[in-house]
């Protein structure tokens, strides 16, 4: 069975009696699928080994403590099972079901990064691939690594062992097949546009081996026929799904029928029935039947997400399929025979959360006595409803009506010195906006310009909201100038405040998370030199225009000089005045004198004519 990237899980090889899964906190839980009980729960030491990134079931013959004959007879074959765990620090540890702890840690040359996938060959050897693009072979007998080789340059995501051909199929963006003895690449397949996230293998009755893979952001299952020759080969068959696959399992029955089951992201199980000898690459195959689990709520019908599926290998129940549904902390398992006459089988079941809560309540002492309550028979007309709170006997005079209270009800803003709002409200508002994905609220918070408010808001922001905030900042960086300025302020404060959180992640994961921010920065840096040249030339033109506008010329382009009346005249100006006084009369002054004399003569003639007229009138 394949282990998804986000779903580290697997059924035990003894008919799926046990199911192991690791949640996001690194807690290993083992369930008994027969009794639907939590068999064991183990929290590893993250400082020593790191969180679990991959797991597989193995059978290890180890030393056992001395026990009584009765206890030895009571032990079943499940005590021989162990779980091999690949860790974030690149090592491999063995978890013992009998002891309930890590029984041994394999030594030798381990991976330089996290273990991405692990597989077992049922012959005492483990094969792991990691982020360092290497395959490491581990011996359970020697408890150490015995061989390794490079499989890069693409980062391997999944690995599966093919027993009949003695090869390893490694999935990254391509599917590569390596010979274990020679450590050489013997076959490659291409067809996925993204990285492989689930992988499984199956062998037909005639010995032909097939590898089944699914990839990120793809809703298909590809079949690859292994014959140890050729490069860039296409898939032999393609199956269609409604959503991305998180879990993949397959088996070939004795009659040659191939059964494939996939659990998708939306919690639906797709089952395919194929004939191995008649696979065609030209036609896409749709699921024969789909299983959907829903809750039996009285008001609304809510879907229950399926987590994993496994085909039952018991001959008496060969037509059944085992699946688990619920959450990682509360799982419920069931075996069912699908109705292949219908495309969709809706399975109505109780929600595991409600079932566990009810079961936990019944186990408490006195639960039956507390829940056995008799209902009294009372007369509805004589019922008096009392308040549980104590009521004062004093009557309040002039009680204010409710309408007046509502009118005077106001929300008082808590302010700091300087008139700034309390930053805790910004933090809570940012958390609510990121949780509800309200773009208007997010824009209102991220438009804050005050550096102190931004810093205090990020100081109080929980670590779970760092990744959603980076996504929103990346969206703002692709907007206009005002949005980019606000986004840069928040990004600068975020990287300086939560540096340890960002550096604790994987290099590839951090690069993928900050891809948009880095891309925008690099794009703007490419245009920086041209933008600076344009800015410099525009500034030169503006400054020249300002200097031309500020001058001492009037409208007639005449130079204006402002003289201070209190300023004493210089000696040169006094000499110039003396020269003007000593200079003889100019022709202009002589002309003016002659004009004055003519005016006087004309005046005298006018007076004489006036006297003559007066004498004649008297006569």
From TrEMBL:
An example GO BP is: maturation of SSU-rRNA from tricistronic rRNA transcript (SSU-rRNA, 5.8S rRNA, LSU-rRNA)
| InterPro entries assigned to the protein according to its UniProt record, in alphabetical order | SSU_processome_Utp12 (IPR007148), U3_snoRNA-assoc_WDR (IPR052414), WD40/YVTN_repeat-like_dom_sf (IPR015943), WD40_repeat_dom_sf (IPR036322), WD40_rpt (IPR001680)
Q: What is this protein called?
A: WD repeat-containing protein 43
Q: Please name the SUPFAM superfamilies in this protein's record.
A: WD40 repeat-like (SSF50978)
Recorded GO cellular component terms are: nucleolus
Alphabetized, the UniProt keywords read: Nucleus, WD repeat
Q: Which family does it belong to?
A: Belongs to the UTP5 family.
Q: Does Nucleus appear among the keywords?
A: yes
Query: What species does this protein belong to?
Result: Drosophila mauritiana
Q: Does the keyword section mention Protein biosynthesis?
A: no
Q: Where is the composition biased (Acidic residues)?
A: 561-584, 592-619
PROSITE patterns, A to Z:
WD_REPEATS_2 (PS50082)
Coiled-coil positions: none
Q: Where is this region: Disordered?
A: 559-619
WD repeat windows:
108-148
């Amino acid at each position: 069975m394949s282990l998804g990237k986000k779903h580290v899980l697997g059924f035990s090889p003894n008919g799926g009696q046990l199911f192991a899964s690791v949640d996001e906190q690194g807690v290993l839980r083992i369930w008994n699928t027969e009794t639907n009980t939590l068999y064991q729960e183990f929290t590893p030491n993250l400082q020593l080994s790191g969180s679990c990134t991959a797991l597989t079931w193995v059978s290890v013959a180890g030393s056992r403590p001395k026990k009584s004959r009765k206890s030895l007879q009571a032990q079943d074959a499940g005590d021989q099972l162990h779980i091999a765990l690949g860790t974030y620090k690149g090592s491999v540890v063995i978890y013992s079901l009998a002891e309930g702890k890590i029984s041994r840690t394999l030594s030798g040359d381990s991976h330089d990064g996290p273990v991405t996938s692990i597989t077992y060959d049922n012959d005492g050897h483990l094969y792991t691939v990691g982020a360092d693009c290497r395959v490491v072979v581990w011996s359970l007998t020697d408890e150490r690594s015995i061989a390794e080789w490079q499989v890069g340059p693409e980062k391997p995501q999944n690995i599966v062992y093919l027993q009949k051909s003695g090869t390893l199929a490694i999935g990254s963006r391509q599917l590569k097949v390596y010979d274990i003895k020679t450590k050489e690449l013997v076959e490659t397949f291409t067809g996925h546009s993204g990285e492989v996230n689930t992988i499984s293998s199956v062998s037909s009755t005639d010995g032909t081996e097939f590898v089944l893979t699914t990839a990120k952001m793809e809703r298909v299952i590809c079949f690859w026929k292994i014959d140890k020759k050729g490069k860039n080969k296409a898939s032999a068959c393609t199956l269609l799904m409604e959503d991305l696959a998180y879990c993949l399992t397959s088996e070939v029955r004795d009659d040659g029928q191939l059964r494939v089951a996939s659990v998708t992201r939306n919690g639906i199980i797709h089952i395919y029935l194929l004939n191995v000898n008649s696979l065609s690459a030209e036609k896409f195959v749709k699921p024969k039947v789909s299983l959907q689990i829903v809750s039996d709520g009285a008001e609304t019908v809510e879907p229950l997400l399926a987590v994993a599926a496994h085909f039952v290998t018991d001959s008496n129940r060969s037509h059944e399929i085992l699946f688990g549904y619920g959450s990682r902390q509360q799982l419920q398992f069931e075996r069912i025979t699908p109705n292949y006459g219908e495309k969709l089988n809706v399975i109505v079941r109780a929600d595991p959360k409600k079932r566990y809560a009810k079961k936990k309540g019944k186990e408490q002492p006195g639960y039956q006595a507390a829940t056995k309550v008799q209902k009294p028979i009372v007369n509805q007309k004589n019922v008096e409803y009392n308040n549980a709170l104590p009521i004062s006997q004093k009557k309040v005079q002039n009680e204010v009506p409710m309408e007046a209270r509502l009118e005077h009800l106001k929300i008082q803003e808590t302010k700091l010195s300087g008139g700034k709002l309390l930053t805790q409200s910004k933090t809570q508002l940012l958390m609510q906006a990121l949780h509800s994905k309200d773009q208007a609220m997010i824009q209102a918070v991220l438009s804050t310009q005050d550096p102190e408010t931004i810093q205090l808001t990020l100081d109080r922001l929980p670590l779970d909201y760092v990744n959603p905030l980076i996504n929103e900042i990346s969206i703002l960086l692709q907007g206009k100038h005002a949005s980019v300025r606000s986004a840069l302020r928040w990004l600068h404060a975020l990287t300086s405040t939560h540096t340890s959180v960002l550096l604790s992640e994987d290099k590839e994961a951090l690069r993928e998370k900050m891809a948009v921010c880095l891309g925008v920065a690099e794009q703007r840096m490419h245009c920086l030199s041209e933008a600076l040249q344009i800015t410099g030339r525009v500034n030169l033109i503006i400054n020249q225009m300002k200097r031309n506008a500020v001058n001492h010329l009037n409208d007639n382009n005449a130079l204006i000089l402002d003289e201070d009346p209190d300023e004493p005249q210089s000696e040169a100006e006094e000499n110039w005045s003396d020269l003007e006084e000593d200079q003889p009369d100019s022709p202009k002054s002589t002309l003016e004198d002659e004009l004055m004399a003519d005016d006087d003569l004309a005046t005298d003639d006018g007076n004489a004519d006036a006297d003559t007229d007066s004498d004649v009138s008297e006569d």
